Amino acid sequence: MTFLEKNDPETFQNYLKDASNYSGKAEKVFLPQTQDDVMAIVKMASKERKPLTVSGNRTGLAGGAIPQKGWIISPERMNQMGSVKVLGKDKAEITVGSGVLLSELFRETEKSGWLYPPDPTERNAAVGGTISTNASGARYYKYGATRHYVKSLNMILAAGDALELKRGNCRAREDGSFSIPLKSGSALKGKLPGYVMPNVKNAAGYFVEREMDLIDLLIGSEGTLGIVTQATLRLIRPPEKVFAGIAFFKDEEAAWSIVVRQTLEAEDQRLLFDVRALEYFDEASLNFLKPEYSNIPRSAKAAIWYEIETDRKREEKALEVWGGQLEISSALEESWFGETAKEQMVFREFRHALPVAVNEKVTKNGFRKVATDFAVPLQALPNIMKTYADLSVRHKIPYAVFGHIGNGHLHWNLLPENQSDFEISWELVKEAAREAIEFGGTISAEHGIGKMKIPFLRMLYGDQGLSEMAEVKKVFDPAGILGRGNIFPEELLPML
Predict the structure, then answer these.
(1) Distance CA 439, CA 418 (A)
(2) Which of 40, 104, 483, 489 is most buried (CB neighbours < 10 A)?
(3) Residue 163 carries which DSSP code?
(4) pLDDT at residue number 266
(5) Which of 366, 376, 452 is nearest to 411 (CA)?
(6) What does the radius of gyration of the chain's CA atoms come to, in whole angstroms?
(7) Four-point Cα dihedral 454, 365, 360, 74, nearest 10
(8) Cα angle at 205 between 361 and 466, to 5 degrees?
(9) CB distance 470 to 478 below 8 Å
(10) DSSP secondary structure, 374-385, as one string
């Protein structure tokens, strides 16, 4: 075997905290290099009935990669990456180990002239982690989440069985029942949960759809059904031309208006261009960034970062029409615009700097991050924004709102400075979760449930929905050792 093992807690403290400042504990850490290594480790854990948590690069914000007991398995040494395989004029794929970082994947695909569309903010995330959470990011507005680009998965299940599942090879039946063949000759047989997912960007619990491709059940399952060892990912040709900018506005409503107008007029405008990213910053968010970006206009109370795809033939007209949209929404003259890759990278860094600054503030305050990952239908966006502002102001807790406004998906970050306000903040998030669900939204659009949002998942799907998900987990993991504490309350899992 080629795996490494860390038994001294002093050598693995960095595996016990994620980007949200959620912390945990473990007995040991395993670092496999091959799928056979993973199989051996899983068999040991199964035999000893030890909880086994997959820890990617711990960029998550819901505690999913951080155990409270048992063992950790980290795929960081499983970083093998194949070359881009061209399948046709506009089709290609690449096969990577689960420990490959997004930054490495992007570097390889861009060098070969291809695009991997999912765009999570944190490019130091491991590919396996992004599959486990069905990560998305800024380009979700046009391209959707990770799920749409996973062609096949190799996984190790809780009993040590190997599973290779290719998209299109295995579907659920009309009644929700399923059967997934294993290499051993046996099969996993069960029934999907009966709940209906919210009709918004959603990463809450197991993905369910009528007669669904069963690879989608595994994507976004947060390490509770199996351990991803390798994936083949679909690539597309990059757009011919991209222009981008950060538009600043004198008030929040002006910033929202361009988002609503773009959505309503999208069909007409698509003849000229495709908006692939629409990201929002409120005044508090801009204040976080001003120490590093002194050129933010003084009068700016909100901003929208956008990226737009077109081609050389349509570029001039596209710029004219988009400029008209900015003018109608009263964007400030000091707004930023960029056509070169270098200029656009500055804007991306501007967006990335914000969650980093917020997380640093959270760590400095000494508390776990308190933030929402809710998405609501776009027409309910003003309502949920009003909820966030009213709750924060009423309880005098500082906050910042930013994120993927084009999908009705904004992150409300509360910034408590003492224990009392920290506890109140979680109660406010629960109150806002009820509102989001009432509006037809979800309690997790991209970060997953992990260990921090189980009460919210119960609000969304009820006890029956949780129980039905637990029955699916038992099909894949009868002893309940994988991802222990993620998605499910302990009472729904077998005792260890």
Answers:
(1) 31
(2) 483
(3) E
(4) 58
(5) 376
(6) 22
(7) -50
(8) 120
(9) no
(10) -B--GGGHHHHH
Q: How far apart are CA 335 and CA 249, in angstroms?
A: 8
- Residue 157 sits at φ, ψ, to 5 deg, of -90, 175
Bridge partner list, 227: 156
Quickly list DSSP for 106-147: HHHHHHTT-B-----S-TTSBHHHHHHTT---TTHHHH--GG
CA distances from 340 to 331, 345, 347, 352, 371 (A): 21, 9, 11, 19, 34
Burial string for 332-356 (b: 16+ CB within 10 Å, else e) reads beebbbbeeeeebeebbebbeebbe
Q: How far apart are CA 98 and CA 230, in angstroms?
A: 5
Helix%, strand%, coil% for the chain, nearest 5 = 35, 20, 40
Which of 148, 166, 174, 145 minimizes the C-alpha distance to 214?
Answer: 166
Q: What six digits make up the tokens of 326?
A: 């900015």
Report how far residue 33's alpha carbon sits from residue 73's, in angstroms, rounded to the nearest whole number.
Answer: 11
Helix (H) and strand (E) counts in the chain: 13, 18
Mean per-residue pLDDT pooled into runs of 10, the chain (496 residues): 88 91 94 96 96 92 92 96 94 97 96 94 91 93 96 96 96 97 91 97 96 98 97 97 96 88 65 89 97 96 96 92 91 95 93 90 86 94 95 96 95 94 95 97 95 95 97 97 95 89
Residue 156: its H or E element: strand 150-156
Total Cβ atoms within 10 A of residue 271: 10
Question: Over the range 292-305, which residues count as b (16 or more CB within 10 Å of their CB) and which as e?
Answer: eeeebbeebbbbbb
What domains appear along the chain, each with residue ranges and CATH number?
85-235 (3.30.465.10), 241-356 (3.30.70.2190), 366-438 (3.30.70.2740)
Q: What is the pLDDT of residue 257?
A: 86
C-alpha–C-alpha distance, residues 401 and 392, integer Å: 11
State the Cα–Cα distance between residues 377 and 316, nearest whole angstrom: 33
DSSP 326-349: HHHTT--TT-EEE-SHHHHHHHHH
Burial code (b: 16+ CB inside 10 Å, e: under 16) for 129-162 equals: bbbbbbbbbbbbbbbbbbbbbbbbbbbbbbbbbb
The β-bridge relationship of strands 302-310 and 241-249 is: antiparallel
